[in-house]
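step 3/5: co-fold with adenosine-5'-monophosphate-propyl ester
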Amino acid sequence: MNAQTDNLLQENRKFKPSAEFSARAVADSTRYERAANDRLGYWADTARKRLTWDTDFTQVLDWSEAPVAKWFADGKVNAAYNALDRHVENGLGDRVAIHFEGEPGDTRTYTYSQLTTAVKQAANAFESLGVAKGDRVAVYLPMIPEAVITMLACARIGAIHSVVFGGFSADALRSRIDDAQAKLVVTADGTWRRGKPSALKPAVDEALAKEGHSVQNVLVVKRNGQDVAWNDSLDKWWAETIDTASAEHTAVGHEAEHPLFVLYTSGTTGKPKGIIHTTGGYLVQAAATHRDTFDLHPESDVFWCTADIGWVTGHSYVTYAPLINGATQVMYEGTPDSPHQGRWWEIIEKYGVTILYTAPTAIRTFMKWGRSIPDSFDLSSLRVLGSVGESINPEAWMWYRDVIGTNNGKNGERKDHPTPIVDTWWQTETGAHMIAPLPGVTATKPGSAQTPVPGITVDVVDEMGVSVGNGEGGFLVIRDPWPGMLRGIWGDMDRYKDTYWSRFEGMYFAGDGAKRDEDGDIWLLGRVDDVMNVSGHRLSTTEIESSLVAHPYVAEAAVVGAKDETTGEAVVAFVILQITPPEGEDVVATLRAHVGKDIGPIAKPRHILVVPELPKTRSGKIMRRLLKDVAEGREVGDATTLADNTVMTQIAESMRG
Ligand code: PRX
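step 4/5: write tokens
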């Protein structure tokens, strides 16, 4: 194992919540006890508190077909009704649901009532395009309100959305469309990126250029007004289709186990996995954790999760949980540095954001840009700060607290009580937070996600599956089924069982290394499999290797994630060429572009090194560990198991050359 058990993570600083914060907090410490004493009872109560059910459930959990769980199975519930209609029925129709801020500075505000109307219209329009319950809808949109409207309209009619991040290529989009057999694609002409229009529709056109796809219609939102190619047999403008549809639509309850969405994520093989989430359990855990982890007071808070809807964080904490909880949220289309490096802080000041949820890579970027930028904005409204996607190193945690969490105005005023910081560990597969402090209860600790959320049983085990003691490291597992857990991999249940349930008997294997410190708090140590984490985005080494070897120049390839100060990890590839490239050809640039086209710009290797050989064991396995040493500029570790131990010398020489 390479769970870095030798990593001596030690942290003596602890920050107790202020008495004021705890007094107002939605969750107190009794929640842990209550959940531990009667886990299923706790989830049943939570399910009834957080959601309005069309049909109440009689059974909480059915684990008889483990590892496929059924939660609240005979209950019926409609996600869109819970996110929208019921708030309007409860007199909250005028509350702002979404403050949208476009990158060029255009804004739109949707109240709950307006968002409900928009979703009803979209639901009617989708139905008139032949989309029915159980059909799949691919969503390839930027961070604009139509993304949320599309997802909720699908959920309303029981169609299953499959959101594909806009940074993925045409090829990646097509393979996801094919795998899910999507009937409808919803996209936009483009978006704005660093002040310039950036296109999206051409990727859809390219994806669908080859015959044999399942798509019957493509709906196109006009976002940046650029010219687009038009295919009369497929394409329809959003405005002409949705805005003219009827605003009357009655939501019916869907079975709790009806699939809500499929979201593709990288695994340890070349093929991305379509993670399946169902309706009831997923919504319960997303809503409950959103409320507890962020201490949400929906009547007064302004929540901002900076994640894109192309990732699970955007699903759970942009589209579903905030709206189910009746909160007001901010949605921002662009990058943090457009048109200036203070854009996020300006947005926080403008909308009075109270809860910010973002990734360590962003925090480290802001650290690099310097504190004078956030210091010149009024961030006094902030009261909870969240982190997600990778471990937050203690330096970044302290900066987040000291610079962002104590800012009490532009004049350098500081808060008496810095805002609590909640580091949240979870995965696409878990659906919602699994390990996170409760901000009004936990004495927080820089760098550690600390404790499982109430109702969740997480453990750290050794190679044999035995719990490790405090101060020891091992593998992170989840012992009991949880409401938001994935229900399988689209079209491949064997892979589901194999990937998550075969490593340790009866336990879910998360793929992360972890350690318990002397207080029993959990520290995440990174992936122990072939998955990389670049800027909080999951990438598979094998997927990038497959892409590289598919290029005619390449005979063999090995990809590793090398430590990077800002992005966490950076993709580094080692390739052996099988031909001599044409004179003047920039092989590295060609291969980077090839990976960009195959998978998407986010997967482009930072460095590609052409080497004469790759280090392999006698059984032919590439020793990535040694390549990681090279990529990180370290002395190469134990190479005695190499079939040919001159290889590493050759690699080192080719690097110098
Ligand atoms: O390695 C862990 C890391 O991100 C992986 C899950 O990636 P994904 O499915 O894309 O979901 C990301 C957002 C939930 C995990 O296996 N990870 C996520 N959050 C943390 C983390 N590692 C350490 N600390 C975290 N808070």
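step 5/5: annotate
DSSP finds 20 helices and 30 strands in the chain.
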